[in-house]
Amino acid sequence: MKPALSVIFFTVLSGAGYGVWCLVGAALAAGIYPQDRIDILLPLGFGFVLVTAGLMASTAHLGRPERAWRALTQWRSSWLSREGIAALVAYLPLLMLAYLAWRGAAGTRVLGALLAVCALATIGCTANIYRSLKTIRAWRARQVAPLYFMFACLSGGLWLWAWLASRADTYVSDAFPLALLVLAIVTALIKVDYWRGIDALPAPTAGHATGLEMLGAVRAFEGPVTEESYLTREMAFVLARKHSARLRPIALTLFAAVPALAIAIALPSGAGWLAIVAAAAASGGVLVERWLFFAEARHAVAAFFPRAVP
């Protein structure tokens, strides 16, 4: 598949934003988050900017962005529609929570729990958009949905840690960055397992694409097109294996190795500025990972374009 930058930026930005909302909301619900008004409002506002920027970026992938609202009407059958509804609903507990935090009123624990649930629901809908596509075997892998949740919590959690670490008068338990360190390592291991799995997948065939593979070898009588088309540009896009081999270690280094090293150094030394390095590196790593997620996927229609299949 040809990576669409608008969709990549959407999943990276909104994923980090929902990760911030989820962690702040869950910590408030558990009663373990700092109660200072600024410590609540600033991360929520940062998440608002990320989520909104991501949603706006996603509309750039549409041919008629002004008709995006129509996607919300197909919620019974479309994960894309459910994602849009969940994304809009998540703003309600966010705004109510921000209002209560600003006024210093009670009720932040309940709204924090609602915000965390809404954020997780939206991430789940996004993951299922890809998990539900039977035409792309790589996206049907069991690791896809967990990785969406883990990348959101990792990138969002690191940005939240960067904010809290910059607050000299706010105490942050070492358990939080240590949990992020473990999450980075586990995410890297699952991602490597995912890559091994998709590398072992057979190339798309005409038999698989048509559902006739049980009858034997299937081939087209003649090529479907005589010149480049939308299908050859988008669906039959192929990433050279040499590029994949270079980009995978870069992604792992940025979203796992750098944050883990930064946390390991920052905790005993008290160098809080390393939290910003970890968060920025992780976001860059998720950007590379998400580009690979699309570029390495093979659509079944590519079977009808033999030259496009390595």
Total tally of structural domains = 2
Question: Unreliable segments (pLDDT under 50, ≥5 consecutive)?
Answer: none
Shape: globular
Number of strands: 0
Concise overview:
The chain has 310 residues and is mostly helical. The chain has helices at 5-30, 37-58, 79-103, 108-131, 144-165, 175-199, 206-210, 230-235, 241-269, 274-295.
Descriptive notes:
The chain has 310 residues and is mostly helical. It has ten helices and no strands. It starts with a helix and ends in a 15-residue tail after the last helix. It has helices at residues 5-30, 37-58, 79-103, 108-131, 144-165, 175-199, 206-210, 230-235, 241-269, 274-295. The chain is globular, with a radius of gyration of 21 Å. The longest helix is centred in the C-terminal third of the chain and has 29 residues, at 241-269. The protein has two domains: 1-132, no CATH class; 168-310. α2 packs antiparallel against α3 and α9 runs antiparallel to α10. 66% of the residues lie in helices and 0% in strands. The mean pLDDT is 86.
How does the SSE layout of this entry go?
Blueprint: H1 5-30, H2 37-58, H3 79-103, H4 108-131, H5 144-165, H6 175-199, H7 206-210, H8 230-235, H9 241-269, H10 274-295
Keywords, please?
0% strand, globular, mainly alpha, 310 residues, 2 domains
